[in-house]
UniProtKB/TrEMBL annotation:
Residues 26-283 form the DUS-like FMN-binding domain. It comes from Nicrophorus vespilloides (Boreal carrion beetle). Pfam families: Dus. It comes from the Eukaryota. This is tRNA-dihydrouridine(20a/20b) synthase [NAD(P)+]-like isoform X1. Its cofactor is FMN. SUPFAM superfamilies: FMN-linked oxidoreductases. InterPro entries: Aldolase_TIM, DUS-like_FMN-bd, tRNA_hU_synthase_CS. Keywords: Flavoprotein, FMN, Oxidoreductase, tRNA processing.
Length: 411
C-alpha cells in the first residue's frame, strides 16, 4: 500500500458545545487517554477527548518528548491537548506546535500531586491566577480564534473565590473551563454540585463538570441539575469505555474493538497487504505493552471472575495476553479494511516550522535557559504507576469469589 495518509479534519469546539444538550468528555489521564483509548471511547458516544497531561517544557525542548508524548491520526478529533506549564513561553510555544494537529489546548491547573506542586504546576497554579490569565491571553493572541483555549481546575474552599477565578479566566479569553468539583486536598468523596451550578450561572463560557461520575444517568442528572454544558469522566471510563452509551459494563465487542485498535496501530503501511495471521510483534510500532495491557485489566474488571483476573493482570508479554484472550474469550486481533486502516494511521508530526514561536517568546521573556534538545525527560511509562498497582492490590485481596453471568457478556 502506498504511504498516502488522509489529512486531519478540524473541529470547532464552540460549535460543538452549541450542537449538543451537553458534551460528554473523556478526561485527560496520564498514561491512559492516549490515541488508542480516544479512538475506542469515540466509538461509544464520547464527544470530546483530552490527551494526557504533557509537560510543556519537555515538549518544547526535546524532540524525544514530542515523539513519545503526543501521537494522533486523521480521525482523532475533536481533540484537546493538555499541557502543564507555568510560563507563557512554554505553554504558548507548545500550544503553537500542536495547534495544526488538534482543536484546542488546555492548561492543567488541577493536578494535586506533590511533584507537580513542587514544580509550581497543576493546582499550585491557582495560587497565582494572574499567570494563568496571562497564559490564556497570550495563547489567544498567538493562535487563530477558532482554536479553543481552556483551563482544567479544581475548586477552592470558598465558593465565591472559585467563581471569581472562573470569571477571571473567562475574561482573559478562556473558551471553556473544566471544573473538578473537589478541592486539591480531596481525592474522593462527594463533589460540590452547588458550586458547579453557581459557576455556570456566573459565566457565559461553557463549564464542563467533573468528579465521581459512574454512569450515563449520573451524567444526565448532573448536567440537568447544574446547567453545565459538559460532563467529564476519568476513572469510570477506564473500567467502562461504553459508559456514555448508557451501558453499565463493557461488552466483549468493546474488548474486541480495543484489540483491533491496538493491533492495527502496530502494522506499518508497507506491510498491510502482506498480513496473513494478525499478531502483535514483541516490539511493536506505536504501542507499548503497558497501554495495551492496563486498559484490558481495567475493562476486564467487570467481565472476568476474580480468579481469572489474578492470572491475567500478571501477564507481561503481548503473546501471553493474546493467547489468554483467545483461550478465555475467543477474541483475536483483526486487520482493518483499507479505508479504516488509512484513517487510523499515525500522522507524521512535523514541528520544524512552528518551534520558532517558543524560541521567540522565550527570548522576549528574557529567559536565560540554554536551548538544548533535551531536558526534564519525563517518561510516564517507566513504571507500572501507582494507579495500576492499586488496582492490582484490590484484585489480589482475599475475598469471596463472585458468581459470574457469562451469557450477559455476549449481548
Ligand atoms: C489515571 C489518571 C490519570 C489522570 N491524569 C490527569 C491528567 O493528565 N490531567 C488532569 O488534568 N487530570 C488527570 N486526572 C484527573 C482526572 O482528569 C479527573 O479530574 C479526576 O479523576 C476526577 O474524575 P473522575 O472522578 O471521573 O475520575 C487523572 C486521573 C486518573 C484516574
Amino acid at each position: 500500500m502506498e504511504e498516502e495518509i488522509n489529512p486531519r479534519q478540524s473541529h470547532n469546539i464552540n460549535d460543538l458545545f452549541n450542537q449538543r444538550k451537553y458534551l460528554k468528555v473523556c478526561a485527560p489521564m496520564v498514561r491512559y487517554s492516549k490515541l488508542q483509548f480516544r479512538t475506542l471511547v469515540r466509538q461509544y458516544g464520547c464527544d470530546l477527548c483530552f490527551t494526557p497531561m504533557i509537560l510543556a517544557d519537555s515538549f518544547c525542548k526535546s524532540s524525544h518528548a514530542r515523539q513519545n508524548e503526543f501521537t494522533t491520526n486523521a480521525d482523532d478529533g475533536p481533540l484537546i491537548v493538555q499541557f502543564a506549564a507555568n510560563t507563557v513561553h512554554e505553554f504558548v510555544g507548545a500550544a503553537y506546535m500542536v495547534a495544526p494537529f488538534c482543536d484546542g489546548i488546555d492548561l492543567n491547573c488541577g493536578c494535586p500531586q506533590r511533584w507537580a506542586k513542587q514544580m509550581g504546576l497543576g493546582c499550585a497554579m491557582l495560587d497565582d491566577p494572574e499567570v494563568i490569565s496571562n497564559i490564556i491571553k497570550e495563547c489567544r493572541n498567538t493562535i487563530p480564534k477558532q482554536f479553543s483555549v481552556s483551563v482544567k481546575m479544581r475548586i477552592l474552599n470558598d465558593d465565591k473565590k472559585t467563581v471569581d477565578l472562573c470569571r477571571q479566566f473567562e475574561h482573559a479569553g478562556a473558551s471553556f473551563l473544566s471544573v473538578h468539583a473537589r478541592t486539591a486536598s480531596q481525592s474522593t468523596g462527594d463533589i460540590n454540585r452547588n458550586v458547579l451550578k453557581l459557576i455556570q450561572e456566573s459565566v457565559r463560557c461553557p463549564i464542563v463538570a467533573n468528579g465521581g461520575l459512574t454512569s450515563l444517568n449520573e451524567c444526565d442528572e448532573l448536567a440537568l441539575e447544574t446547567g453545565c454544558k459538559g460532563v467529564m469522566v476519568a476513572n469510570s471510563l477506564l473500567t467502562n469505555p461504553m459508559l456514555f452509551t448508557g451501558a453499565s459494563k463493557p461488552t466483549l465487542n468493546c474488548v474486541q474493538k480495543w484489540i483491533n485498535i491496538c493491533y492495527n496501530s502496530t502494522v506499518p503501511m508497507s506491510s498491510y497487504s502482506e498480513v496473513t495471521e494478525p499478531k502483535i510483534s514483541s516490539r511493536p510500532l506505536n504501542l507499548n505493552f503497558h497501554c495495551f495491557h492496563h486498559h484490558l485489566v481495567f475493562m476486564l474488571e467487570k467481565i472476568l471472575p476474580k480468579y481469572k483476573r489474578r492470572v491475567f493482570n500478571k501477564l507481561k508479554e503481548f503473546d501471553d495476553v493474546l493467547a489468554f484472550l483467545e483461550a478465555e474469550l475467543l477474541l483475536k486481533p483483526q486487520l482493518y479494511d483499507v479505508d479504516t486502516f488509512r484513517n487510523s494511521y499515525n500522522l507524521t508530526l512535523d514541528y520544524k516550522d512552528t518551534i520558532s514561536v517558543y524560541t521567540r517568546l522565550r527570548d522576549r521573556n528574557a529567559c536565560n535557559e540554554a536551548f538544548v534538545d533535551e531536558s526534564n525527560e519525563y517518561n510516564s511509562e517507566a513504571t507500572d504507576g501507582s494507579y495500576f498497582n492499586k488496582k492490582l492490590e484490590q484484585v489480589n485481596e482475599d475475598d469471596v469469589e463472585e458468581v459470574y453471568d457469562w451469557d450477559s457478556l455476549y449481548k
